[in-house]
Design brief:
Blueprint (H helix, E strand, L loop, with lengths): L7 E7 L1 H4 L7 H11 L3 E8 L3 H14 L2 E5 L10 H9 L3 E3 L1 H10 L7 H4 L3 E3 L3 E3 L8 E4 L2 E4 L3 H7 L14 E8 L2 H14 L4 E9 L2 E10 L2 H17 L3 E5 L1
Parallel strand pairs: 1-2, 1-3, 3-8
Antiparallel strand pairs: 4-5, 6-7, 7-8, 9-11, 9-12, 10-11
């Protein structure tokens, strides 16, 4: 059996537009949900600017720290798309026109449309392996354990299927949510006692505000459904004793 603790991932979201708030990051959620389904736990996410030295340093840190690294953004045709060149420097691989990527893009565009800007999308570490793009033609790429994907959410999502066979996961990480009409301070002690008895289940506590009322979502996560069920029963027991209302379960 593969130990999920050994199969982790880090996500690097690259782009000034994310840091400025102009663009909302949804790629973290997409990647994390997908990786969890494969039994790969996301342990860290960083949002960084389009600055070469920061990209190089972050990629080099992450690729040593995690089994898999996923980057999103900065591989398009514009002047501020510098991820490909930065990855080349991180791995000390020549940056240039990738022969296979160039051919793919050349076929994708009509004669005369494959201009200099679009040709830039074929520039990457020349030894990189490609991640095919079923949506817009321009491929992503990976070098060793670092997978580089575009920033456009719909395109990123469409490309995930092409790398599923390139990574090895553990047991899928399952989850169960209980929504309570309470505040965290009211359940903190009881929740700690349940967590101490169920160390194989990760219990997350997240306050929410709905319809003018406060509540807390408890999310139970584990690779073992039986352990989630046992943990859930223990939580429901103290919830009943404290006469706390359950809003809904899922």
């Amino acid at each position: 059996m593969t130990n999920n603790k050994d199969i982790n991932a880090g996500i690097i979201i690259i782009g000034n537009e994310i840091l400025s708030g102009r663009t909302k990051d949804t790629n973290t959620s997409t990647l994390a949900i997908w990786l969890n389904s494969l039994g790969i736990k996301v342990e860290e996410v960083r949002v960084i600017p389009d600055v070469e030295s920061i990209i190089v340093d972050t990629v080099n840190l992450f690729r040593k720290k995690f089994k898999y690294v996923f980057t999103s953004g900065g591989i398009g045709p514009t002047h501020d798309d510098i991820t490909s060149e930065s990855i080349s420097k991180a791995f000390n691989i020549t940056y240039g026109a990738h022969e296979e990527a160039f051919k793919i893009l050349e076929k994708y565009y009509k004669p005369g449309e494959f201009n200099e800007g679009r040709q830039k999308m074929a520039y990457m570490p020349i030894k990189a392996s490609l991640i095919l793009n079923p949506t817009s033609g321009a491929p992503g790429f990976y070098v060793e354990n670092v997978f580089c994907l575009p920033g456009v959410p719909s395109i990123l999502k469409a490309m995930l299927g092409g790398i599923q066979n390139k990574i090895v996961g553990g047991e899928p990480i399952l989850s169960h949510t209980i929504n309570l009409r309470t505040v965290e301070s009211e359940i903190a002690k009881s929740l700690s006692e349940v967590q101490n008895k169920n160390t194989d289940v990760e219990i997350g506590s997240y306050p929410f505000f709905r319809a003018g009322k406060l509540g807390v979502s408890l999310v139970l996560r584990s690779t073992d459904q039986n352990k989630i069920n046992n943990c859930n029963s223990e939580i429901l027991k103290f919830v009943q004793e404290k006469k706390i209302q359950i809003v809904d379960e899922g």
